[in-house]
Amino acid sequence: MEMREAPTPELKNDTDVLVKLKVVAVCGSDVHYYVSGKIGSQVVQYPFPVGHECAGVVEKVGSAVSRVKEGDRIAVEPAMSCGECDQCQAGRPHTCRKLTFLGCPGQADGCLSDFIVMPEHSCFPIPDSLSFDEAAISEPLAIGVYAVNRSIPMQGANIGILGFGPIGMSVQLPAIAKGAEKVYVTDKIDGRLQIARESGASYAGNVDKTDVVKEILELEPKGLDVVFECCGQKEAIDQAFDLLKPGGVLMLIGIPEFDRWSFPVDKGRHKEVTIINVRRQNGAVEETLEMLENRSADVSKMPTHRFSFEDTKKAFDLVAAYGDGVMKAMIDF
Ligand SMILES: [Zn+2]
Ligand SMILES: [Zn+2]
Questions:
Q1: N or C: lower Cβ tally within 10 Å for the chain?
Q2: What does each C-alpha distance from 215 to 21, 99, 206, 220, 309 come to in angstroms?
Q3: Cα separation, 68 vs 60, whole angstroms
Q4: Which helix (H) or strand (E) segment is 277 a member of?
Q5: CA of 83 to the centre of ligand 2 (A)
Q6: Which ligand ends up closest to the CA of 95?
């Protein structure tokens, strides 16, 4: 990874917005590209700027833009859908046939750059009470809000969150805000488990140090209503099938390094487990910004490390190594 000079991008359509970046949050998926050069079929051709969790200020707007004006502080929705295909028409812009995504190889340059151009429908003005950090974190948080909404009603639910990185935390906060009764969290990093406890987990266990399945089932003998897989690890799927109660729901959110999941057929059948894949988020940005604004979701514990734009490589190396108990590394411009 290196810094390169690049021309300031131009507005191409009259609905485009030029955004001056203020904060970028480093995502696990950005680090996947940095470490492996690809995620599944999405392969990086060097040089390519990654990054998609960002907040900034509107620098310039196209002639037809009405949502935002110069000087507005905004959160950025990185997905750009066509609005015309069957998926968009069916209210599924997140699986748009022509979807492009900020910082996704072959689709759109990422936001680790002083300026980016986004269509106006990706720009969400934020109130003064929201920080740029919160605006950038609204992107992963929206994935958690969507995953929770896509699962089961949270009121009184007992849930598991396997993997407490930023996405695990992004599931926990809305789940609790929406009434989850008990939240069981697992991870391999003690610092993250500490954040989970401080943010309302009733249990937080380190899978490397203890038999988390045994401990959770002792506390919850009937099993869990829903398990959110947020780490992309094979072992987590086995744990999920053990932890779920009959009729339980498994939400797959983590991005694994491998190409195929496997799960125990016998347990899956006998418990009649429902498996739901989560593809980023759909329509959850506004609800997420509202939750941040009314303080029903507190993300202040998520950013654990800060770097200047020039030190982006250091941030990526830290996150790649899971160093120093890192949860979310923030890049300041
Ligand atoms: Zn992300
Ligand atoms: Zn479409």
A1: N
A2: 45, 42, 11, 9, 43
A3: 10
A4: strand 274-277
A5: 5
A6: 2
pLDDT band at 40 (very low <50, low <70, confident <90, very high): confident
pLDDT in tens, 256-269: 888 899 999 999 99
Distance between CA atoms of 302 and 208, rounded to whole angstroms? 22
Residue 41, pLDDT above cutoff 90 = no
In degrees and rounded to multiples of 5, residue 318 shows phi and psi of -65, -50
Residue 95 alpha carbon to ligand 2 centre in Å: 7
- Residue pair 62/70 in contact (Cβ under 8 Å)? The answer is no
The predicted-structure confidence for 103-114, as pLDDT tens digits, reads as follows: 999 999 999 999
Q: What totals of helices (H) and strands (E) does the chain contain, helices first?
A: 10, 17
**Amino acid identity, position 5:** E
Q: What's the pLDDT score for residue 162? A: 98
Residues with a beta carbon under 5 angstroms from ion ligand 2: 81-82, 85, 88, 96
How high is the mean pLDDT of the chain? 96
Residues 6+ apart with CB under 8 A from 311: none
| Count of residues in the chain | 333
Cα–ligand 2 centroid distance for 79 (angstroms): 11
Nearest ligand, CA 96 = 2
What spacing in Å lies between the alpha carbon of 27 and ligand 1's midpoint? 4
Distance 109 CA to ligand 1 centre (A): 14
| Rounded distance from Cα 82 to ligand 2 centre (Å) | 4
**Ligand positioned closest to the Cα atom of 82:** 2
Q: What's the predicted TM-score (pTM) here?
A: 0.96
Q: Which two tokens stand for residue 178?
A: 């929406």
40 contacts 32 by C-beta, under 8 angstroms: no
How many A from CA of 53 to the centre of ligand 1? 6
